[in-house]
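Person: Show me a sequence?

Helper:
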Amino acid sequence: MASLSVNGKNYQVDVDPRTPLLWVIRDSIGLTGTKYGCGIAQCGACTVHVDGVATRSCSVPVSAVGGKSITTIEGLAQNGKLSKVQAAWIEHDVPQCGYCQSGMIMAVTALLKSTPKPTDTQIDASLTNICRCGTYQQVREAIHTAAKA
């Protein structure tokens, strides 16, 4: 039995300790905003925060996150109000297919926490999530808007 804190709520899940955190979040807890993309921590669709650090949940066993605070895309909005990154995403019409967006938003949220006013070079260096639709220009504009908020 694993004990997890996800979006400020405690869960007890009966899974193999080697089960990737992604599948526990989606299948055991039922939060489906975190997406499966590649399964090898390359695309970033599965990005969540573990103790505030952007983490690719498809490659982290649930046994490695016990006692840590996990935040998923569902945990960003507070009291019905979108986060500044989520609001900027809408303002700049970032999503096309939308599949990668939850992971991208989680990565950007962590970036802005560590680097509140990132340059384009810093954005390029730290944001390694893949968007198959190629909305990178809108992503960059949304990041700068969120940084000003």
